[in-house]
C-alpha cells in the first residue's frame, strides 16, 4: 500500500509517497520504486526498519503461540510449559503491535509537523496506509493480550483434559 503520505494538487493531480515507492498522476497513476536508500528521508528509513522488525516479530509470535496451543502435539506431556509458550507468543505479539503503533504515530507526527510549517500547496497529509497500520497494530496488541489473559486466567487450574474414567462397577458401563 503506497498511500502513507498524499498530496493533492487541485482535483486532478495526486502524489502518493509510501515506504517503498512513490506514485503520481491524475487519470493514470505511475509508480516508481525509490532508487537509493541514501536519498530517503530519515522518517522513511526509520519507519521501514521498525515496520520490518514488527512484521518479523509478528511471524515469530505466530509460530511460538501456535506451538503453545492445546490443539498441537508439541510439548504434549508438559502442559505448564505449553501454556508458557502460548503466553510468550502473546507477549511477542504485544511488542510487535506496540512497535508498529509507535512508529506509525511518529511518522504521522512528522507529517503533521511538516504540514504546519510548509505552504499549503507543498504539504502532504497522511494517507490510508496509516489507518491500516494503526488497525493492524491494535489487532496485534489485542491478540497478544488475549493470549496472555488466557494463560493468566487459567494459571491455578489444571491443564489436563478430563477423560471418562471407568466406574467402580465395570459391567454397568455396558448395555
Short description:
By secondary structure, the protein is an alpha+beta fold. It has a domain of 114 residues: Butyryl-CoA Dehydrogenase, subunit A, domain 3 (Up-down Bundle). The protein is built from three helices and five strands.
The CATH architecture term of the domain at 41-154 is Up-down Bundle
Give the count of helical stretches: 3
The helix-strand sequence is EEEEHHEH
Give the helix proportion (percent range): 40-55%
Poorly predicted segments? 156-162
Number of separate strands: 5
Q: Assign the structural class, choosing from mainly alpha, mainly beta, alpha/beta, alpha+beta, or little secondary structure.
A: alpha+beta
CATH topology heading of the domain at 41-154 = Butyryl-CoA Dehydrogenase, subunit A, domain 3
Q: What shape does the CA trace take?
A: elongated
Strand proportion, as a percent range, falls in: 5-15%
Q: Quick one: CATH class of the domain at 41-154?
A: Mainly Alpha
Q: Tell me, rounded to a whole number, the average pLDDT.
A: 81
Transmembrane segments: 49-69, 90-109, 129-149
Pfam families: PMP22_Claudin (PF00822)
Family: Belongs to the claudin family.
Keywords: Cell junction, Cell membrane, Membrane, Tight junction, Transmembrane, Transmembrane helix
Amino acid at each position: 500500500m503506497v498511500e502513507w503520505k498524499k498530496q493533492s494538487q487541485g482535483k486532478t493531480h495526486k502524489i502518493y509517497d509510501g515506504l517503498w515507492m512513490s506514485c503520481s498522476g491524475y487519470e493514470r497513476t505511475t509508480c516508481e520504486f525509490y532508487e537509493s536508500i541514501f536519498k530517503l528521508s530519515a522518517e522513511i528509513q526509520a519507519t521501514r526498519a521498525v515496520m520490518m522488525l514488527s512484521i518479523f516479530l509478528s511471524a515469530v509470535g505466530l509460530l511460538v503461540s501456535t506451538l503453545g496451543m492445546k490443539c498441537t502435539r508439541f510439548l504434549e506431556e508438559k502442559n505448564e510449559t505449553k501454556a508458557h509458550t502460548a503466553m510468550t507468543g502473546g507477549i511477542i505479539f504485544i511488542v510487535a503491535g506496540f512497535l508498529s503503533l509507535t512508529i506509525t504515530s511518529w511518522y504521522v507526527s512528522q507529517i503533521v509537523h511538516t504540514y504546519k510549517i510548509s505552504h499549503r500547496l507543498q504539504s502532504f497529509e497522511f494517507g490510508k496506509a496509516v489507518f491500516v497500520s494503526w488497525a493492524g497494530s491494535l489487532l496485534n496488541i489485542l491478540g497478544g493480550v488475549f493470549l496472555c489473559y488466557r494463560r493468566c486466567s487459567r494459571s491455578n487450574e489444571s491443564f489436563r483434559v478430563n477423560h471418562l474414567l471407568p466406574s467402580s462397577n465395570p459391567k454397568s458401563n455396558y448395555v
